[in-house]
Amino acid sequence: MTDSIHSDNHTRVPTPEQSPSEHPLSTNAAKVELASLQEHLRGQSTRKSSQLEEGGSPALKDVAEEDEDEEFNLLEYLKGDKERRDAVLEEAKRERAKKMKKGDLEMGTAEEGRQEKFTGSGARKLGVIWQNLTVKGTGGIKINIRTFPNAVIEFFLSPVFPLMMKLPKFAPKTKTLLHNFNGFLRPGEMCLVLGRPGSGCTTFLKNISNQRVGFLSVEGDVTYGGLAAENFGRHGRYEGEVVYCPEDENHLPTLTVQQTLEFALRNKTPPHQLRLADEKSRAAFRTKIVEYLLKILGIPHTKNTLVGNEFVRGVSGGERKRVSIAEMMVTRAIVQAWDNSTRGLDASTALDYAKSLRVMTDVFDGTTFVSLYQAGEGIYEQFDQVMVIDDGRCVFYGPAAEARAYFVSLGFADLPRQTTADYLTGCTDPNERRFQDGKDASSVPSTPEQLEEAFLKSSYNKVLMEDMREYKEEVEKALPEFEKELRFLHKIAKQPLVLSGKSPYQVSFLDQIWALTVRQFRLRIQDTLGLSVAYITSITIAIITGSVYLNLPETSAGAFTRGGVLFLALLLNSFNAFNELPTQMLGRPILWRHRGFAFYRPAALSIASTLADIPINFFQILFFSLILYWMTGLKGTAGAFFTFLALVFMGFLALASFFRLLGACCISFDVAARFAAAIVSAMVLYSGYLIPVFSMKRWLFWLYYANPVNWGFQGLMSNEFEGLELLCTGGNVIPRNVPGVVDSYPNDLGPNQVCTLPGARPAEPYVRGGDYISAAFQYETGVAWRNFGFLVAYFTLFMTLQCLAATYLRLGQGMPAIQVYKKENKELKELNEHLQANKADFRSGKRTQDLSALTTKRVPFTWEKVIYDVPVPGGKRRLLNEVYGYVKPGTLTALMGASGAGKTTLLDVLSDRKTIGVIGGDILVNGRAFGKDFQRGTAYVEQLDTHQYTSTVREAFRFSAYLRQPVHVSKEEKDAYCEEIIQLLEMEDLADSMIGFPGFGLGVEARKRLTIGVELAAKPQLLLFLDEPTSGLDGQSAYNIVRFLRKLAAAGQSILCTIHQPNALLFEHFDRLLLLKDGGNCVYFGPIGKDSQVLRDYFAKNGAKCPPNANPAEFMLDAIGAGSQKRIGNKDWGDRWRDSEEFQQVRREIADINKQAAAEPDVSDEKILEYAAPWSTQFKVVIERTNRSLWRSPDYVFTRLFAHVVIALLTGLTFLNVPANYVGLQYRVFSLFIVTVMPAIIISQIEPTFIMARQVFIREASSKMYSPTVFSISQLIAELPYSVLCGVGFFICLYYPTGFNTSSDRAGYAFLIVMIVELWAVTIGQAIAALSPSIFIAAMVNPFLLIITTLFAGVTIPYPQMPKFWRSWLYYVDPLTYLIGGLVSNELHGLEITCNDSELFVFDPPTGQTCDQWAGPFVNATAGYLANPTATSECSYCPIKVGDEFYTPLQISFGDRYRNFGFLVVYTVFNAVVTVVASTFLRYAKR
Predict the structure, then answer these.
(1) What is the mean pLDDT of residues 107-121?
(2) In whole angstroms, what is the distance from residue 1351 CA to residue 1348 CA?
(3) Contact, 225 vs 184, CB < 8 A?
(4) How far apart are CA 979 and CA 967, in angstroms?
């Protein structure tokens, strides 16, 4: 079973008994597939030549004749040097064309012979040599957890940080991560890198693959085939030939496997190289290559399946690993480094993965470095060399077959039952290694320094150094010829559209853009939900907005509203581009991965993303424009419409490129969001609509000219008003008749009346559109297409800067993982000192933990005939099929099976965690059906480590203990118990470390122990379920976890545990085994026995005899056909089990257990409670953690505060000390309207925070920690302090600079309104989040909600001008109506208005009348005042005398101020109730 891949001597053919995924892996099988593909491609090449001969010109026939001898060689294609291959083929074509013209075919043949000399595959075989490799990074200091004050301080000190870092006091402390490594690896060899977590394996792999970002310094030499590392680094000639693959796969989850690999092929297969004339032929070629690669790796059935990830359903973990290998094959990288890539795979799949690497290395003569945890013996045998690292020191490097013997020779005891990989790692662990009899740490090298010294003095190192010297001489000897060859290749490699022969890319820049455009377009099209929501939202908003401004009249009444429609059209579509910001930043990891593979230039992705968005966004904007334009009755000509469409669409493209630029330049989304808040606000304020350019402050008006939104809006206004004539009617005629009051004035504009519309001319009833926009906005007509050109220029500028930023900035790439700690106080210092004092005694075994207090109930747990069906399209699917079993107190039961067999599903069913599907069968606790306290009484260590990331390890343990242990247990006892758990799990050094997330916080192994500790802290009374508790751990950590579980079982705990990749020694710690196969069918349930003898006997009895040296855990999986091996025997192993006597014995045992348990009375007098803690305790504990979480989320809180202050300050400075005149009154209203922007900012931040907190709650709620009401209320209350802070900052920066009324009652009321709007925004954001299944859906709802509430608040279109349908109900339902009503009446009530001379409207009264006699009746019936009532000419009229006259016609009353405030309070309370109810009943946790 564990034969080395080198021993494969035949091709295994899948049999009908195997599942589609069971394709064996072997070098020979791979070569057979390659040969088959070779024949297929040779046939393609021949057919192509025939086509040329039959239908081509004589010249083409000659080319075809020459090409017949140039058969396509797949192996050479995958192995051959890309520069030589590409350059020679391209140059050969050029030379042939020249020679055919000159008739000098002989010379051409001679030249081709010269070129063929350089087309061998030898140069692709790059060995790696590393000499005196020393790596230094940051370390030696304890970093405290950042809090909100830290973010504020960092912001103000950020300009001087670069200078501070140069001072010795602030310079980062250095730590040597790797000490003087030496070695080499030949082409075609694989090296296994072993070491405990933190020993330096990842550091070595990164540096050996030339990934040096994040390290302070890298000293020594690393050469590849004699070439310096610089040639393979960033912008190096051979970038992409040396690659590093991190632990986690990073693919685009919504692409299929075929699409993923075809994209890689597009970027690694120059079209000219294939000699296929059309794209259809090249597409067929790529498809064929993908099919054969998938056959080689045994996953052809995944071709049309999504790759997926932890959030998107796709291929399995093992299949995803092989997709990564296939992608690596396509890259044809020579040197590859894989970092712990078998995490989460079962033993059989992990072995297949190692064999896949062996296939790739052997077939392509690659050089492969791999770091693995829990490598089985079969995996270990795939490697040629092994390196063992201890605390950054190389303690062994040599042949893998001789490593164990070396450590035994040092004096370490040989442990034959331990796998070689675990044994080698164990020799570096002071707590796990064993010495030979008569030896101890004083006589055997024990410290990293001693082990390193012993290796340096050993014969292995002497041989290594001698071999390395010889290999280096061999490489250096061939280097001059190699460099000469490269110079020749560089000369002929310059192709059109390729930068130079130095370029590491294989396809031209345009080809890269095309491949990326196709990929990005697929991503958009395949996201049907997002696309549908975006289109529906856009069309709905267009319809509603169009209905509000329906058929605008070509009169003075429609002048300003036309500008409002144009402004909304531009704004709604342009700022829709804000979605590009998170998309840009979330795509960074994949960009850097592909950049390292030399698939494409980052600039190509920037351009392609825009090109892919153009058709989708164009049609979205087209539908929006068609609806809005024609519903509102804008200028009804085709030319005007298409100009409108062009300007709106170009505005979108300019803003989209700007937001992408922002994403490319900012290190994090929070930083980008801060810049976006300030810049977007400036763009809106200085667009020329809210405040014309002539009214802007001289020291800020430059923002107007730098603003692309201004040029777009100006172009739209020019397009709409050019040639338009507006009849001056109604409210724009002064003086005029007032129905029912005054009727003495002419109905049409007369000589003694004036039109108040800006741009009106005396005695002319029509106002020219050009005059209007010139007087009101200082705009010109005839500039629409000029401004379109400006938008194109902005788009080009932003795209250029984005391409440069993407190329030269590497923000977020290669950052080292760090841990941060809570600052010690007196209590923590005492606790940590106590832990450290006991640490050595517990490690050495002098002291042992008392586990007797862990369990109080010792009851059996049984399940019979358990089935589980889930709904699928077209019916249902059975995932568990009549599974039987039991767990007795004090026993440890293993649950095993191949990936997808149903292990986690069975755990979910047994632990009562399933929320969908139909469960059948009997699941009994102590012979009885379980009650509502079952989930609380059991502990479930889930596979995904979901925790509140801002908590520390100790805080997480205490949180679980406070809420899940019985209420009668004192806090002091719970705290003391948590300290024991920390000691048990050997987490003394991490007790105050923040949990964080991968890359920032605990590592994989520590997170797994944390998950176990959180469940143990609850003191589970009934059962402990664990789902893959050893996945991602090194061999020693996995052994420690299982050994600890064994101790728990000995103390009386009942444990059921799924486990992957157990070695024989680990496997024997379990008492029983439940083995599943595909379809959730049980294959075996029973005891394992000493040396797994009982299990061996069962399989031997059924024809599957386990070899003496094989690992039974791996053998049984292969025997039932779970891995790549053909199952043993013709009969299904599930049927064998159901027909066996052992199965009947299990059924009898279950019946006896239940009968005996049911006969015993239930003597428990405890009241059955759903939650262990009362509501008040739950609330106290949860609100404390939630407050702490926000305090430790400094970027989230500070970004929110920053946005509030910047927007308010920018508005305050724009409208600084606004005067009490007519124009100033309008500016007061506009500045108050800015308050409605606050909800948009708050909601967009609240929703992701709430939904991420809900994910943690869902995990904790499954254990009945606390109620949903506690969760939702604590989320709201925790936000209150920051809402108050943001509200205060916003109010101060807006209210006082603007010059609003500072009397206590007015300022106090305005402050109350700002506060309640803050709370309303928080609660509506949480309500939307609680109702939404994901952050994406919540974000899709926001534009619709915010636009509707803003549109109907009474500012963009006043109440009297609203259509009756909307005015009758939506105006009153809109919460912002009451916000605007309260603020406007509060500010304008009693405000005396004095018009400037430029604001007065002048008209002459009839001869013989004074101004008051002529216009007095009109003024008394309406509003305003006459500045010169006794004058007989040039009457000066001001439309407003006091602020109340402005808002009274708008259905706003000063007396309703506190009613409006009350309505906002009601809305806020309603939102909170919705949040509580939705959190209770809508958890969106389908499992």
Answers:
(1) 34
(2) 5
(3) no
(4) 19
